[in-house]
Amino acid sequence: MYPIVFNNYNRYLINYMEIDKKYFIYCRKSSEQEDRQVLSLDSQEKILLDLAKTDGLKVVDILRESGSAHVTDRKVFSEMIIRIMRGEANGLIVWDESRIARNAADGGMVVNMFDIKKLEEIRKPGKTYRGTPDDKFFLTLLFGMSKKESDDKGVNVIRGLGAKADKGWLPSGAKPGYMNDKYAEKGNKTILNDPDRFPIIRRCWDYLLTGAYTPPKILDLLNNEWGYRSPIRKSIGGKPMARSQIYLMFKDTFYYGMFEYPVKSGQWHKGSHEAMITEDEFNRAQYLLGSKKGLVKPQIREFSYTGMIVCEECASAVTAEERLYVRCTKCRTKFSSMNRDRCPKCATKIENMEDYKILAYTYYHCTKNKKHECSQKSVELIELEKQFVAMVEKIKISERFKDWIITYINEINDKESVSRMAEFSNLDGAVKLINSRLDNLLKLKISPKNADGSMLSDEEFMAQKQSLLKEKQVLTDKRGSTDTRMVNWMDKINKAFNFATTAREKFATATITEKKEMFNLLCSKLFLKDKKLEYYLDIPFNYIEEAKKEEITMDAVIETDDIAKVYGNLEAYWTQNPSVLPRVLRWTQDRFPPFITFRAGSPSLCEISVY
Question: What is the predicted pLDDT for the residue at 591?
Fold first, then answer.
């Protein structure tokens, strides 16, 4: 019989067997990449309860937690450590060592609890750790490996995001109006246009670029009239856009195809997504919003004509500002109330003035951004409005003239439609002929007599086929575009002359937005020089202005019945008047869609002329 040798390990086992062991079951899972393959909390709990039952372990409590172990101060974990230190338990049952810690501080604290005899055992399926030197070494090693794995993943994620940005894809995900391609291969996710939201977000930019709409007004249209709601993802989404988000959107370079990554790094990338706007449109938007160096600031005060007028001397924008004045009730001096609490002449305090009034004046002036020494003076809104009214008066026509001119242009259109229909018929016939030639070409290609390609080789077949298809596409495009232009042109005629009839009355009662819309329709450019407004009216209003200079009977201000007594039948007079019809016909030639003439007997079916 061999003698029993009591070494240090034997003594540890004897002492360990005498300890009353109580266990906490600790389950943890997070949504991070490292936990994608980890069992759910319910699954962990079931496996660990079965383990405790099989091994006859006394479980004091079951603790569950959702959160990352990369950082310290996990709430449930911290409470568990405190309870172990109090002696409520001296053992842990976990699904895996990584559930305990992925950072050096927590891992070191658990190993130290073995040293101070507060923790006696950690169990997991298939493995048990006790306070032996080897077990503590392996635990320390495993915690360190978990820490390194987490750190490596962090570095790899950053590297991967940088590589994605280099390819032109925004790492942070899609912006309003766009969507992530959920069907793309993992690691190669792209950004696509959101078919439901892209058009209405683009409409937001269009409205902003008119200069007639502020972000709050656009936001109201977006949410309440166009029905924008954010994409639904799990438990979030389906909400209207917030006020702060629309300002962020309007200063985001992503929409013209550029983005900075990492943010504030100075590293700019050209996006591979489809840009919603151009860079020029983005810069104009920043200008309209009062931006400096791309920073968008909400507009508190809205003016009627900002963003519409340019200084003719230095080409800088014309802006507006409101100045408040007080008229002293004692000496009648008018002075600015900004930073003043008393009259500069008689020193009477404003608070001591009886029935004083605050006078508000709006002035338009050059911003002098392009030329600081610009000599142009400011002009008061009242004077500017008088010039706008005079502009509107120049294109105002009578209801009677409007009815006549629209009728006359419709008659021209009806006469021309006969020839257009003939041209369309020729085009349709030409397309049918091409289809017939394509059929004959195919029959020849597949004919048994052409089995060896002696009659029509593959190269000849493809060349002739491509040529015929090209001719067919040209004719089809001409046919469709002429129809579209005709409808749009006639619609513009009606809108333009109806506007010219009622423009003066509408201007008198128009809101700020409506006034901007009116002048965007009237002219494309407005200049200010020596307090005078200069402009170039767009078609057809420039023709109306020219004709009215020579023909007073077009004017709505003059009673047409009185004029008719002098001129007789006005409609007949206008038809014969060389001051009216030549201009109308000239405008018709400028704006009317070109007619397509098929040249009979042409060597090529694609030979068409436009006149």
Answer: 47
Q: What is the CATH number of the domain that holds 140?
A: 3.40.50.1390
CA-closest candidate to residue 421, choices 487, 494, 493, 482: 482
- Rounded-to-integer distance, Cα 49 and Cα 64, Å: 13
Residues of the chain with pLDDT under 50: 1-7, 9, 11-14, 291-300, 590-611
| 37 in a structural domain | yes
**Whole-angstrom distance, CA of residue 48 vs CA of residue 45:** 5
d(CA 609, CA 595): 8
pLDDT the model gives residue 173: 75
List, in order, residues 6 or more apart from 586 with CB less than 8 Å away: 543
What confidence tens digit (pLDDT) does each residue in 145-185 have?
777 776 666 565 566 666 677 787 887 778 899 988 877 76
pLDDT at 508: 78
Please name the residues in contact with 91: beta carbons below 8 A apart, sequence gap of 6 or more.
21, 22, 23, 24, 57, 119, 120, 121, 122, 123
Q: Assign 3-class secondary structure to 45-57.
A: HHHHHHHHHHHCC
pLDDT digits (tens, 9 = 90+) for 198-248: 999 998 998 887 666 788 889 999 999 999 998 887 778 888 999 889 999
Burial grade of 549 (CB within 10 A; 0-12, 13-18, 19 or more):
exposed
Q: How far apart are CA 374 and CA 372, in angstroms?
A: 6
**Measured distance CA(60)–CA(82) in Å, rounded:** 14
The stretches of 339-398 forming alpha helices (DSSP H) are 381-394
Sign, CA dihedral 30-35-41-45, equals negative
Name the β-bridge partners of 364. Answer: 320, 379
- Please count the structural domains in the chain: 4
Q: Is pTM, for the whole model, over 0.90?
A: no
Lookup: tokens for 536: 């170039």
Same domain, 55 and 128: yes
Position 97 scores a pLDDT of 84
Residues 58, 143, single domain; the answer is yes
Decide: 21 and 58 in contact? Cβ < 8 Å: yes
- Domain range for 356 is 309-386
Q: Does residue 431 share a domain with residue 538?
A: yes
Segments of 199-271 assigned E as strands: 258-260, 268-270
Q: Among candidates 36, 30, 64, 47, which has minimal Cα distance to 126? A: 47
Question: What is residue 528's three-state secondary structure?
Answer: strand
Q: Kindly state whether residues 263 and 379 are assigned to the same domain.
A: no
Indicate whether 173 belongs to any domain: no
Indicate whether 366 and 433 sit together in one domain: no
Report which DSSP code applies to 300: S
Phi, psi of 147 (to 5 degrees): -60, -45
Any idea how long the chain is? 611
Q: What SS3 class is residue 109?
A: helix
What is the C-alpha radius of gyration for the chain, rounded to an integer number of angstroms? 41
Residue 303, domain member (yes or no)? no
- 528 and 474 housed in the same domain: yes
Q: Which of 212, 533, 508 minimizes the C-alpha distance to 380? A: 533
Which residue's entry shows tokens 């018709």? 588
The beta-strand segments (E) located in 196-240 are: none
What's the CA gap between 295 and 209, in Å, rounded?
17
Pair (350, 273) in one structural domain: no
Q: Are residues 200 and 123 in the same domain?
A: no
